[in-house]
Amino acid sequence: MLNLxxxxxxxxxxxxxxxxxxxxxxxxxxxxIMDKRAQQxxxxxxxxxxxxxxxxxxxxxxxxxxxxxxxxxAAIIADAQKTARAEYEKIIKTAQNDASAIIEKANKAIExxxxxxxxxxxxxxxxxxLAAAAKLVQRNIDESSNHEFLDGLLLEVGAEHE
Length: 162
What we know:
- The chain has 162 residues and is an all-alpha fold.
- It has one domain.
- Helices cover 94% and strands 0% of the residues.
- The longest helix is centred in the middle third of the chain and has 133 residues, at 6-138.
- The chain is rod-shaped, with a radius of gyration of 63 Å.
- The N and C termini lie far apart (171 Å).
């Protein structure tokens, strides 16, 4: 049978008092501290998630800005190439026009020189013909003498112009 003595009852009462004291002064404050710590961890986790989302948004913005900068750089390069090509075409056209003008001027100079040579040759021929006519008038000899005279005259005029 069970023998209840006062010592067991006091032990049981002490255990109950100790349990209530530990519950009030130890378990409850420890549980509160653990709840607060869990709340802090949740808050930090939410803050980290928010910062991660913000960082991803910034990353997307930077990627967009970088992409736009690349497109803008390509447009600037294309514009510079277009301008350079137009300048090249302008320089080539100017050079061709200048070359055409120089060639035309040279052709005119050649034509003038040719006209001058033809004019001088015509004057010389006129002079030769006049000299021959004057000598023929002075000498009215037979036909064979005229041929000899003309041959000599041509040799004389050819020797003077060489």
